[in-house]
Amino acid sequence: xMDVQQIREYLPxxxxxxxxxRVVALTLGESIVAYKNVTINEPFFNGHFPEKxxxxxxxxxxxxxxxxxxLGFKTxxxxxxxxxxxxxxxxxxLRFKRPxxxxxxxxxxxxxxxxxxxxxxxxxxxEVDGNLVSSATILxxxx
Length: 143
Prior knowledge:
The protein is of the alpha+beta class and 143 residues long. The protein contains two helices and six strands, in the order αββαββββ. It has a six-stranded antiparallel sheet with strand order 1-2-4-5-6-3, with helices on one face. The longest helix has 20 residues, at 57-76. The relative contact order is 0.21. The model has no long low-confidence stretch (mean pLDDT 96).
């Protein structure tokens, strides 16, 4: 549904911090399904960990937040070029269930729970091969 060039219109992130490669489904105001292809060439694998590479949990959380950001921007019909910024401002109930390693496709899911005065609340999860990797409730703010 959205390739990386279209994603770049809705997220201000750039390499090496753009963590969404493709959006495969999006329902405005409701949900998004996206993914990140995890390769051995990711710069964070040089130090996390050289002998047994594992994607840092904080970057899994960031990938889920970026997918949520795309959903929020698309729903509001805004882009960073319009002067709007979408900030990740908090998380609750964050859990990690298994490691993400090179060769995995990290599937990202986000559902809108509520929107109040520019604060969006999302239920998010990440999976690899249908197995839960991480889940959380996150907050994002439109400023």
